[in-house]
Amino acid sequence: MLKILPTLFIAILLSCSNSNGQPELKKKNSQTTDILNFLADDKLMGRRTGEPGNNEAAQYIADKLKSYGVSFAPGMDSYFQKIPFSVFKPTEKYSLVLNNVTFDPISDCLILSGKANFENVPVVFAKYGLVNEETGESDYDGLDVEGKIVIVLPGEPDNSQQSAVMRASKKKRALAIKHKAVALLELYQLNTPWSFFTNYFSRETLQLEDAAEGDKDQLIVGWVKDKGDLIKKELIAGKVKMTGSVSASGSTTIPKPSQNVIGVIEGTDPSLKNEYLLLSAHYDHVGTGKKGGVFTSEDSIFNGARDNAMGTAAILHAAAALAKKKPQRSIIFLAVTGEEVGLLGSKYYAENPVIPLNKVIFNLNTDGAGYNSTKHISVIGWGRTGVDSLISQATRKVGLDVFKNPAAEQNLFDRSDNVSFAAKGVPALTFSPGFDAFDEEIAKYYHQVGDEADTVDKAYLLRFSQSLAYLARLIADNQVLPKWVKGDKYEEAGLKLYRK
């Protein structure tokens, strides 16, 4: 033992010295602070996707990557992945009458698209208006809906959460068109208040256009709130035959492109460099005025310092450090747009990756609503991918502890960009500033005009950024690959992606 101890002691000292010597642990406050200050400045007008401030933020991020020596991704001639977004403005004039009962616009129904006028046509109930992908059974089996109004239940069978509603909407629309219906109305039965729903969907929204989707005015599409149980107890129960009249003036679609910002650092190991860690953060926010939310006459700019200028500053901190001292595996730096309008930028990348996703070993995403503890970071996805010990090591290194899967009732894992990659099978999590619940401290700044750079603890921002960058290095250098734990909802997708 006397002979072994000095050797072991020297090895420990060398290990500590090596980790302390990592560039990410030596960076100063001024670097992350400068990035935060620029991204959350009033002149960027809240960085709303497709608007000038968002584009200026993208150029700033690209310039930073270039200054650090981060390369273009293979096959790209710039840092920008262009995305063909468009602004969708719902139809403004519409009417709906079912069995001589008038459904008033906004208060009883909401028509989103379509340009036509149909009077006294039959109304048909078609369950969820979907096809079971496992059995091939269709909710349209045995139904003749040609020239008729179709009413369906919201979302998917056994899942009426908003995410399921949005996921199923295109499929429902396509099937209704295929079966030659004239209108498709979903019966509103969601937990979200109707007023909140109509306020959100009656305004202009950014969408990722699908060329296969066709003309949005080919079919009248909307939502109906039951009136006196006419639909639920009469139509669905099969007690009456129903006729209806529906009209709409047509929607408007205006191109409004945006971009993801992508850079790559090649790893040092001849074999492992063909595997990639994907480090991501969204750089967009919600903009100004009514587009952003509740504002005042003194301030109408939603600066988004916490959400997500902090995360963007953190991955740029990592880019600078990892470019200076490269890890064994390669790193993809992905600053995504369109998160605030439905995770659209990350979804686009997941469908159009610049490097095949089966070469990506992990997605380390960073995002957050704010923080209520500067002694912690929060990990959304703790216990699911086999990297917990590395997270603990990275956070302890800078004197931070971990809140594990905070606010579980909010289902936060499926509400940030990590889920775009998890759904494809890539092990993923979101690394957030420290919070354990959505309390008053979080609500004070989350999507509020007061979320300004000067309200952020800059010393904490640095430690948060250091821990993220160091964790990225640990994962990229680790010999054991992350993987979904057995039974995880994304395990099957992972097995398919990596063919294990």
Topology, element by element:
Blueprint: H1 4-20, H2 29-39, H3 52-68, E1 80-83, E2 85-89, E3 94-98, E4 101-103, E5 109-113, E6 115-125, E7 149-152, H4 162-178, E8 183-187, H5 194-201, E9 205-208, E10 220-224, H6 230-236, E11 242-249, E12 252-255, E13 258-265, E14 276-282, H7 289-292, H8 305-324, E15 330-336, H9 344-351, E16 360-366, E17 376-380, H10 388-397, E18 401-404, H11 418-422, E19 428-433, H12 440-443, H13 458-477, H14 491-498
Parallel strand pairs: 6-7, 7-8, 8-10, 14-15, 14-16, 16-19, 17-18
Antiparallel strand pairs: 1-13, 2-9, 2-12, 3-4, 3-11, 5-10, 6-11, 13-15, 17-19
Helix pairs in contact: 2-8, 3-8, 8-13, 10-13
Describe what this molecule looks like in 3D.
- The protein is an alpha/beta fold and about 500 residues long.
- The chain folds into 2 domains: about 25-85 and about 255-500, Zn peptidases (Aminopeptidase, 3-Layer(aba) Sandwich), CATH 3.40.630.10; about 90-250, Glucose Oxidase, domain 1.
- About 30% of the residues lie in helices and about 20% in strands.
- It has an 8-stranded mixed sheet, sandwiched between helices. It has an 8-stranded mixed sheet with strand order 4-3-11-6-7-8-10-5. A 3-stranded antiparallel sheet has the order 9-2-12, with no helix packed on it.
- Helix 8 packs across helix 13 and helix 10 (about 390-395) crosses helix 13 (about 460-475).
- The protein is globular.
- Residues about 1-20 have low confidence and may be disordered.
